[in-house]
Design goal:
The protein is mainly beta and 187 residues long. It has 2 helices and 12 strands; from the N terminus they run E-E-H-H-E-E-E-E-E-E-E-E-E-E. The protein has a domain of 105 residues. A hairpin with a 2-residue loop joins strand 3 and strand 4.
């Protein structure tokens, strides 16, 4: 029988009291059977000795590198650069930081090589260390560029596949773009 016998003098027979079976933890693990967020089961072997890992006195020193406390330039001076002449233009929903003589690709347009493209949405202009930011565009600022010609992008493979249907299709795609060279930044 799974119980404990107790002799009582006022009764002639022994009284049997039931005893609860031993409680097994429902969630075995590091929390001792109490379910909690850290109850992830038995401790993995590679975490052994983790609690003895020395941590720095201040968690900020551990996370962030110490910064130099010397006089840092203001953010406007950092954006303006050291006298570099550049502009930020918008074309095709994307913003480009351009300088004179720079070549870059824009969305494809049917333009002959040597023709001119004018970017009128200029968000910012930096000239001789002075930065002018538009609200939202700089009034009177334009960026003129000469068309070099059309270029093709890298090949992209498009694959279609249906399992168990003997259906596989693979096609390639190379998007077209127009390469331009910045001639002048005015404004």
């Amino acid at each position: 029988m799974g119980g404990l016998r107790l002799e009582r003098p006022d009764r002639p027979f022994p009284l049997i009291q039931p005893v609860d079976p031993p409680v097994r933890p429902r969630f075995p693990g590091r929390t001792g059977g109490i379910p909690g967020p850290l109850d992830l089961g038995p401790r993995p072997r590679y975490l052994k000795g983790l609690e003895t890992t020395p941590f720095p006195e201040s968690p900020v020193d551990f996370i962030m590198a110490k910064s130099d406390t010397s006089a840092a330039p203001s953010s406007a001076a950092t954006l303006a650069g050291s006298g570099e002449h550049y502009a930020i233009v918008v074309d095709g929903g994307r913003q480009y930081r351009v300088t004179e003589g720079q070549e870059f690709e824009i969305d494809f347009r049917h333009l002959a090589p040597g023709s001119e493209v004018v970017f009128e949405k200029v968000l910012a202009v930096s000239k001789a260390g002075k930065l002018t930011i538009g609200k939202p565009v700089v009034k009177g600022a334009t960026v003129k560029a000469a068309v070099i010609g059309p270029v093709q992008g890298d090949k992209i493979y498009v694959q279609k596949f249906a399992r168990r249907k003997n259906y596989r299709r693979r096609t390639g795609h190379r998007s077209l773009a127009t390469k331009v060279r910045i001639d002048s930044i005015a404004g």
